[in-house]
Amino acid sequence: MQGTGRKRPVSSCIPCYSKKQKCNHEYPCNNCTRRRRPEECAYYPSQAVQTTSLAETQKERMNNENENENEKNVGLPLDLSSNNYSRINPEPKHSLAELYGYFEDSSLNTLAREYHLEFSSSFPSYYTMVRNLGLDEEETRHGLRQRLTPNIIDEVQRDMDRIPDRQVVDFLVQYFMSEVNWMDQLIHPPWFLSQYQRWWAIRQLTRVSEVEFAVLILRICSYASQFLPSPSYTLDGIRGVSLADIRHTCDDIATKLAAICNRCDSRGSLFRVQHLAFLGLRYLSEGKSNAFCEALNHTIRVAQSIGLHSDAVTSRHGLNELDREMRRRTFCNLYIWDSISSRQLDRVPFLPSGLRNWPLMRLVSAENGGTQSEADVPEEFTSRLLQARLFDFWRNLGPIQDSEYVITEAEDRYEKFCSEFLTSLPSSFKLHPDKSWDKRFPKLPLQRQLLHIFIFESLCWNYRPLLPKDMGYIQSLPAYKRVLLSSQKRGLAVAALHVLDGVTILHTMMGGSHTRFPGIIFYTFEAAVLLAYQCMDLDFPGVNHDAPLNSEAKAKRDPLRVGITNLTREECIQAIHRSLNRLRMLAEVSSMAEVGAHTLAGILNKIPIAEGDNRKTTDTSNYQYDSTTANKVTDSLHSELPDSSSFDELISLVGLQEMSPNWEPLTSDFADGLTAVTGPLESWDVQKENP
Asked: Would you tell me how many other CB atoms lie within 10 Å of the CB of residue 521?
């Protein structure tokens, strides 16, 4: 008689299981790394709650090795220099650049100019001067190979012993790469995963960069846990530990390790910029906008101190192209967040416009229907780059802060935006997009939808200053300006409706479940308030003076005109109700949504009801999200959701599938690094030597 025991759980990653290869159960595993496809390494969701003694055994062995290593390091001298002057005059605790506020890689500041007058015919950087004067970088305060003292190593180790089990960390990193990273794309998966696997091979953290990377991992885990549970993972814990406890542990350890890094190296590195950015994103997902703004300010200061704003700095340091690309992508993200924050909070940006140290738009080689093509297939960062260009366009063209609203200038900006920016979008990202690559790249529809939300939100921002105008001012205008102003008010309402429709579609694509994603919550509230403000006027939208468009081509060039022609007040009020429903649902997991729902409900109750209006207050106390709403609103955006099979595949996707750019020969260093994950960390040294 056959046994009735349970089927043994699958412990191998999906690629190894399908290829029937022996997997070492790490992330990324040995086989995926050897195949140079670490981003494809993925495990079934159920493996997050399976128990195994392998991780505990490895952790115990590593602890024993660390204790032996500590005993060997005790008593070793930290300064091996035999220079008598060094012993008589010990190294200062702070660098000259730190105390005087000089940018160390500048070729134009006082240090560089004085050295030019005495020693050189060119403008060398600060570090060039240090080397020419006979001081090795190892001996400087900001030595990029800087090692930790034994006492600090022990302090770091005590915190590292509290890190969650590696399987928990692997699961959160994997979930972040596959389900969260598409939103901001701060991390390039192949670059990060190569560093990630080498980091786990380190027996003991003895350098600042290694500790900085530990902080980055912890910040990623904390941020990823904000989006759990989810449609692809419905449990509220991992391996028996609650998500709240995991998040608290990661944040606590990361904060302590980050403080150690600041004490040892006040300047920072790319890793520091990234983990500070993730801290800010966590604040934003928790609804702490002011804390996000402060974290962004700190992040930008560190980024400027290491020269992230200047590609010339990275060129002088000799970084390979992949590392330079990561710096450009990080700076591009900082520019986007700074633009969004300054617009939402009505503050002056930290970064001025014109700083375009951004990546180039790249095409990838992809196969579709058996044919190889590079016609118009963007790699995964293209959507983020388009967002940066969108904000830069409005920074250079948009209204000056606190300036008087000029009706004709607002219309000129809109026409220029339609003729210059919208026409320059790649076909996969246009408002009427080419969707032939959507099934090949599952995250492309989500990235495109988020870009469209930003596009219509920017149009709201262009027309928003017209709302406070009183009737006395409007009546004083010439007749043609009153007509134009009325058209712009309708255009503002149409743009807000497009934002809400886009948010509905995006939310449905993400599973229509509870989420803390600010892109869903914030823009739902913002657009709904704009509509509510206009609906306070019983005569809104008034008489339409705009002629209907006679062709689809004209509609593509003027995305608001079609909506202006058919706009009704009832449509706007219903959109506000749907927004309130969404905010009330999300209020269960988000304080931002909770406060937004309470505020919007109060505003909605103040909207006057027109005579003959049968509108009723909607009871949303037991509201459940209805995904069919998205299917109805897609007609107004001339966009469609993927078919049911591809949508289910998108939601159930566990492995990382992304668009990979063709880096050509420039990635040889990266590819070689993947084959030597247990060797010395040369790439770490390059990163530290040349921030």
From this structure: 27
